[in-house]
Amino acid sequence: MKRAGILNRGLSGALAELGHGDGVLVCDVGMPIPAGPRVVDLAFRAGVPSFAEVLDGLLAELVVEGATAAAEMRDANPEAASLLAQTCPALELVPHERLKELSAGARLVVRTGEARPYANVLLRCGVFF
Fold first, then answer.
1. What is the pLDDT of residue 6?
2. Average per-residue pLDDT in the chain?
3. Which H or E element spans position 98?
4. Is residue 86 a contact partner of residue 30, using CB atoms and an 8 Å limit?
């Protein structure tokens, strides 16, 4: 058993398979899940685990070179907007409908238990060298 880092077997394995440029959609319970990408559903109940907790864990494990989120988040969920502005490099804001279109190209979807609107971000993997 792993001693530290992400312990969820499905998520840990999925992260190990990612490469440069691959997309990881971290989403709330309301975001439509696109057909195709591998899905790791961490939702236990409303709010558990939170978007912030899952994002923190993923950012500790991944090299991220960019991120995309919904522009509507700024008004509907300022806490998530502030979190992403502080933690995600080169954050791009697009209309929510465009985020849903872009999420179809993600290689991995990680569903959180977050139940507040627009707590979604598409991370673009970088490289460690």
1. 84
2. 95
3. helix 96-103
4. no
pLDDT surpasses 90 at 1: no
Please give the positions annotated as active site: 20
DSSP per residue over 3-58, as a string?
Answer: SSS---HHHHHHHHT--TT-EEEEE-TTSPPPSSSEEEE---BTTBS-HHHHHHHH
Query: In whole angstroms, what is the distance from residue 109 CA to residue 113 CA?
Result: 13
Cα 17 to Cα 70: distance, rounded to the nearest angstrom: 26
pLDDT band at 89 (very low <50, low <70, confident <90, very high): confident
Give the dihedral sign, CA 121/66/97/80: positive
Write the CB contacts of 97 (distance below 8 Å, at least 6 apart in sequence). Answer: none
Q: Are 70 and 53 in contact (CB under 8 A)?
A: no
Q: Using the 8-state DSSP alphabet, how is residue 116 labeled?
A: S
What distance in Å separates the CA atoms of residue 122 and residue 115, rounded to the nearest whole number? 17
Q: With 80 as the cut, is the pLDDT of residue 113 above it? A: yes
Q: Which residue has the tokens 């971290």?
A: 26
